[in-house]
Structure formats: C-alpha cells, structure tokens
Design brief:
The complex is a heterodimer of chains A (64) and B (209).
Chain A (H helix, E strand, L loop, with lengths): L1 E3 L2 E3 L6 H7 L7 E5 L2 E2 L15 E6 L5
Parallel strand pairs in A: 1-5
Antiparallel strand pairs in A: 1-2, 3-4, 3-5
Chain B lengths: L3 H12 L1 H8 L2 E5 L3 H13 L3 E5 L23 H12 L4 E5 L8 H5 L4 E4 L4 H14 L4 E5 L12 E6 L2 E5 L13 H19 L5
Parallel strand pairs in B: 1-2, 1-4, 2-3, 4-5, 5-7
Antiparallel strand pairs in B: 6-7
Classes of the chains: A mainly beta (64), B alpha/beta (209).
Chain lengths: 64, 209
C-alpha cells in the first residue's frame, strides 16, 4: 500500500506520473513529496512507488 | 522621527526583546507583490523584520486598488518601487532589496539565496507550483510559505495555515479559485496574507508548530 494524502492506495509498482494521472491531478499546479523529500517534476516518470511509501500531493489554486 | 534604537525599543515593548532581536536579524523574500505580497510586506515591516527581498515585474494597475496596498497616485509605478516607498513611510529602518523581474527557474536561486524564509504570493496556480517546486528542489534548508485559496466572499474562517510538507506551509482554504469567477476581495485576501506573515513571524521567533 502507498499512502497518498493520508489515504491508502493499492498502487505500489506504478510511477508517480501514472498515479497522478490516474488520480486526476494537473501536474502544472502541484508539488509532490515522497517520504519528506520533494520529487522534481522531471523525475515523476521514473519514480516508482513501493509499499510503505508516503506521498503528499499539494494542489494550488489561483488568486493572490 | 524616531532613532533606530527608539523604534526597536517600541517594538520590543510589544514583542519582547529576544523575539525582536531575531526578527530584526532576519531576511524574508516576498515573491509577488499583489494582494498577498503587499499585505505580507506591511505586516513584516511593522513587526520589524530586518530585511525584505521584494520581487515583482508588474506595475500598479487600477484593478489592484481593491485589495493591494498601493495608492491611486502610484498607478503605473512598478510595484517594487511603490511598495518600497510605502514601507519606508511606515519605518525608514526596514532594509529593502527589490528586484523588478519575472521569476523563473533560471533566476530563483540567485534572487532567494539570502532569504531565511520565502513567501509565495503569486496570482496564478502554475506560478505558485513552479516557485514551491523550485525552492524545495534548489535549496535544502529553506522553508516556503504559500497562499492558495482566498478568492470569493466565503467565510474568512475557512482560511487556515497547515504544514503540508516538511518545508512547506500552506495558507488559505485550498479550494477557492479566482478563475471560477468568484471575485477577490481585500478582507479575505488580507486574512490569507496575515496567515502567511504570521507563520513567518512564528518561525523566525522559534514557534515551529
């Protein structure tokens, strides 16, 4: 199981890019952290999730 | 006019001497000088943060006057210059470094290298994401505080501060998007800006939670 924003998902073995697409995130408006380290956008494709990983996805909205 | 010592004494009387010393020896970068950034800058100036790095490429426009800390007589001025002027009127002892540039992946490191804490105060979601990613990737220690979700006329009570990543604090309701046509009003934007400024002050004075 992979924990994404506090919820367990059966997504071990998938890349961060695949998971983000499946969960409907727009990659231009987010930041993603794995086990307290930021994942560079350029590494979403090659970062493969494993059991026990903790992912935080933060989405931004407009206005300021 | 007060001397610098008299000014610091007056602030210390309200904040405590030890906290004031930390604040006055700190440098905070404010990225974007619109509704969030101009209000953050005023709170940090009043609190006696020693140095502000102000960054924005834009000029003061009539559509800014509903919520941003500029005056009608400053229309057409660069926001960096207009805000510096306004902050210096609050206290001439605030240190200001300003950069009238558009931030991008190539200049972020140089612009932010001296900042103890970075405030994200942009308007567009994509720019917020770009800055947060860049700061967390390029710097190993810096903390960034971001504002997301302050549009519209909903309750101000839904705006909060959360530590959402190891070095990222998010202020706002996280969902109210100005692009949904719900407007953007001074009072609610100022609440969000105050959350950002307050988290900066708390971190600088050793309140981590």
């Amino acid at each position: 199981m992979v924990k994404i924003n506090g919820n367990d998902h059966d997504l071990a073995g998938r890349s961060v890019a695949e998971v983000l697409a499946e969960l409907g995130y727009e990659t231009g408006r987010i930041a993603v952290e794995k086990d307290e380290e930021i994942i560079p956008k350029s590494a979403y494709g090659q970062t493969i999730l494993k059991d026990g990983d903790t992912i935080e996805v933060v989405s931004f909205v407009g206005g300021g | 006019m007060l001397t610098k010592d008299e000014w610091l004494e007056a602030l210390s009387a309200r904040h405590g001497k030890a906290r004031q010393e930390r604040l006055v020896n700190s440098t905070v970068a404010i990225c974007g000088l619109g509704g969030l950034g101009s209000n953050i800058a005023i709170s940090l100036t009043r609190a006696g943060v020693g140095k502000l790095i102000l960054i924005d490429f834009d000029k003061v426009d009539p559509s800014n006057l509903n919520r941003q800390q500029y005056k009608m007589c400053q229309l057409g001025m660069f926001k960096t210059e207009a805000l510096s002027e306004n902050l210096k009127e609050i206290t001439p002892y605030v240190g200001i470094e300003y950069h009238t540039v558009k931030m991008d992946d190539d200049n972020i490191e140089e612009l932010l290298k001296d900042a103890d804490i970075v405030c994200e105060a942009f308007d567009k979601a994509e720019n917020k994401a770009m800055l947060v990613n860049a700061v967390l990737e390029k710097f190993k220690e810096k903390i960034i505080i971001s504002g997301s979700g302050m549009a519209g006329f909903g309750s101000a009570n839904t705006i909060s501060t959360k530590k959402v990543m190891k070095r990222l604090y998010l202020c706002g309701d996280t969902t109210s998007d100005v692009n949904d046509g719900i407007g953007l009003v001074a009072s609610r934007v100022m609440v969000c800006a105050a959350h950002e400024a307050h988290m900066v002050i708390r971190l600088l004075t050793g309140e981590e939670k």
